[in-house]
Amino acid sequence: xxxxxxxxxxxxxxxxxxxxxxxxxxxxxxxxxxxxxxxxxxxxxxxxxxxxxxxxxxxxxxxxxxxxxxxxxxxxxxxxxxxxxxxxxxxxxxxxxxxxxxxxxxxxxxxxxxxxxxxxxxxxxxxxxxxxxxxxxxxxxxxxxxxxxxxxxxxxxxxxxxxxxxxxxxxxxxxxxxxxxxxxxx
Length: 186
Description:
mainly alpha
């Protein structure tokens, strides 16, 4: 009779661990989803700002058609991207195209002095800072989630419950560009 109670006790403990691990992983997964939604909100604000910026630049630098087209193509690609990996790659392309667009202001002093351009560039800079903060929050949530599915006792149940590793919102190939110090020429 006492062996039956021991077996039942072990089963109860095992079930309790499974439920606890499952609930913790669900909470961590929800945090990752919420963090990605926060990044997405910031990216949509940037996407909405880009047409105004392009129109402002177009008035001063109409013969820079290639740069303007690159920005529009990159924006459209970024808007249609799905999931962290695809969004990250598309946003990296968009960031590069926007960098080239902003660099045009150096070649066009009238554009650089335009109040509308200055306001849009300032808003874009502010959004870039918010996007960076949202990315950090998302990557932290992913790190906690990925750690959670690898720690015991959750590691015993994670695969069985369908919890798989999630990707970070990485800078990808543009990491060297981001880490390099900007060059200022006068």
